Amino acid sequence: MNVLDVLEPSQIPNRYKEMSDQELEIRAKQIKKKLGPNLYIPGHHYQKDEVLQFADDTGDSLQLAQMAEKNQKAKYIVFCGVHFMAETADILTNEDQTVVLPDMRAGCSMADMADIHQTIHAWEELQNTFDDTIMPLTYVNSTASIKSFVGKHGGATVTSSNAKRMIKWALSQKKRILFLPDQHLGRNVSYELGVPLEQMAVWDPLKKELIYEGDKQNILVILWKGHCSVHEKFTVEHIHALRSQFSDMNVIVHPECTFDVVQAADTSGSTKEIIDAINHAPKDSRWAIGTEMNLVNRLIKSNPDKHIVSLNPNMCPCLTMNRIDLPHFVWALDMIEMGKPVNEIKVEDETAHFARLALQRMLERV
């Protein structure tokens, strides 16, 4: 799934686009009732409310994939998220279960910043430089092929919640780590663990080179040059502007934000940690949140006793995370009811095998 796919015309029949929201909602409810336990709908926190209202469970990407794995009854899993999340669900679920992504254009630009060909080349170059001293780790926000590569080479996946634990584990196994595909999460968590910036390098997959000044043998963390286009839009200037206006403003950001933003914020945390922090915050407290806008808006609505804003006042929802809408969702349900499911996500067996190893190594340590 490439982010450029969002430019391609959608294959959805026009009649779904012409239906009113009320008609679409009625149809969705009818199909959910008819299919009953044969249908399971996991919904990611970043999804639109119009779709998330039909989710059986909400959560982050790995949490939802695990919930799908535990659901042995559902024949169809309609994943309201993005492509890499649906891939993970397919990897973890049974052969007789079908995973469907309502809109195939729903992807992740960060996941697309590391493809398997780039990764194989980088690994060969890094092995020539550092020999067998590197443990590969990949953020779960990555393609199945990257998860598979990591699993095949003894590494594991990580989430933003457990990245600290997993990086610590990896550095106890090998002298160095290669962290894909988000350089900011890798940098922020490694620094928190005590790895100085001077011992971190960046691998540029486009230039095919290691960016580092000094003796390369001092490198402990090699960061893939990838990033989240949403979280990079939060800046230190945004923090300063809000604090100059409100001295009691609490700033909480996701660790996918840049290093300077994480250092300037009061705290950083995963999506779940952000949700928990806001939900348990004192009445009338002020919060500026540095993460995806759909989630921020949902937290504002569910916490009317607090003063909550987006850290970036001009932030828009993620283009690809926000792709699934009611027409695509209902179309996917209709096709399942007709026995002709569309947009099935199926990971090839060998790829799934090694990707599952990477996931299992993580799950054994959390």
Structure description:
With 366 residues, the protein is an alpha/beta fold. The chain folds into three domains: 3-109 and 320-346, Rossmann fold (3-Layer(aba) Sandwich), CATH 3.40.50.10800; 111-228, Rossmann fold (3-Layer(aba) Sandwich); 231-310, NadA-like (Rossmann fold, 3-Layer(aba) Sandwich). It has helices spanning 14-18, 21-35, 49-52, 61-70, 83-92, 116-130, 144-152, 163-173, 183-192, 236-245, 259-264, 271-279, 293-302, 326-337, 349-363; strands at 39-40, 42-44, 57-59, 76-78, 98-100, 134-139, 156-158, 176-180, 200-204, 209-211, 221-224, 249-253, 267-268, 286-290, 307-310. A six-stranded mixed beta sheet has the order 7-6-8-11-9-10, with helices on both faces. A four-stranded parallel beta sheet has the order 13-12-14-15, with helices on both faces. Helix 2 (21-35) packs parallel to helix 14 (326-337) and helix 7 (144-152) packs across helix 15 (349-363). The two termini are 29 Å apart.
Instruction: Give the biggest beta sheet.
Output: 6 strands, mixed
Q: What do the pLDDT scores average to?
A: 93
Structural shape: globular
- What structural class do helix, strand and pairing data support? alpha/beta
Strand order of the largest sheet: 7-6-8-11-9-10
Rg, rounded, reads 21 Å
